[in-house]
Amino acid sequence: MAAPKLSAISTRAPKSADKEKTKQKTARLISELDELQNLLIAENKNALLVIVQGMDASGKDGVIRNVFGSLNPLGVSVKSYKAPTAEELSHDFLWRIHKHVPAKGMIQIFNRSHYEDVLITRVHGWCDDETAVKRMKAINDFEELITQHNHTTVLKFYLHISQKEQQERLQERTHDPRKMWKYNEKDFDESRLWKKYMNYYQQCFTACNKIPWHIIPSDQNWYKEHLIATVVHNALSKLNMQYPGLKK
Questions:
Q1: Among 83, 144, 168, 221, which residue is least crowded by beta carbons within 10 Å?
Q2: Nearest-5° angle of CA 161, CA 82, CA 126?
Q3: What is the Cα–Cα distance from 177 to 164, expressed in whole angstroms?
Q4: What pLDDT, on the 0 to 100 scale, is given for residue 245?
């Protein structure tokens, strides 16, 4: 499958999209996800790993809360990846990732992921190109392993936000009391490296697309949530899950 080209994909919903109707469709999808999750838990044959990547202020937290927040908490877990600890750095880069992949019957969400080790590390020169190429091969092998050997469906989302929209959201954190806790001066420094990030994201999409990336226009939250809910709903529906009968 050809890798997606960020430069060719809009960060906004099509002009023909109706906001209110789309939000109604999203609500129905999320309601149906509750039953699909129940089937996933009951059948206990498959797992779902949802990877959410994106620039600062692209809405990772919000989409996780709004799409998955109403699901049974016993069957869904969220892992947020930050800078690795000293212990994590003493292992291979996938060590801290592998122990959080979902068990059968579970939905695991990664807020950022193993892809940070070929993105921010390259932007800041902590990882050279040769190492990054090896890591991307390891990522492909890792995703193939959990897909083929533990019946894990992997969904990879990149929240495609424009730099203009990002700047507006970062500025909002400086004066909205409800969002001030998210403010980090370093986010503005990272935004200045936008072109580098886009370059390395594009390389990542090209090298790690055996399991395809979903590029999600994210300037408008209602549209972003609809697209992600649709992809997750379709993926779980395709598993053709069934409730097990009584054990004899």
A1: 83
A2: 90
A3: 22
A4: 85
Residue 4: its pLDDT value, please? 87
239 CB-near residues (< 8 Å, 6+ apart): 40, 46, 153
Chain position carrying tokens 């004066």: 175
Domain boundaries, the chain: 27-237
CA distance 171 to 247: 58
Surface-to-core class of residue 159, CB atoms within 10 Å of its CB (0-12 exposed, 13-18 middle, 19+ buried): buried
Please tell me the predicted confidence (pLDDT) of residue 14. 97
Q: Going edge to edge, which strands form the sheet with 76-80?
A: 76-80, 107-111, 47-54, 152-160, 213-217
End-to-end CA distance of the chain: 45
Residue ranges for the chain with pLDDT beneath 50:
none
- The answer to whether the beta carbons of residues 213 and 139 sit under 8 Å apart is no
CATH of domain 27-237: 3.40.50.300
pLDDT digits (tens, 9 = 90+) for 186-237: 899 999 999 999 999 999 999 999 999 999 999 999 999 999 999 999 999 9
Nearest partner of 218 among 1, 31, 52, 30, judged by Cα: 52
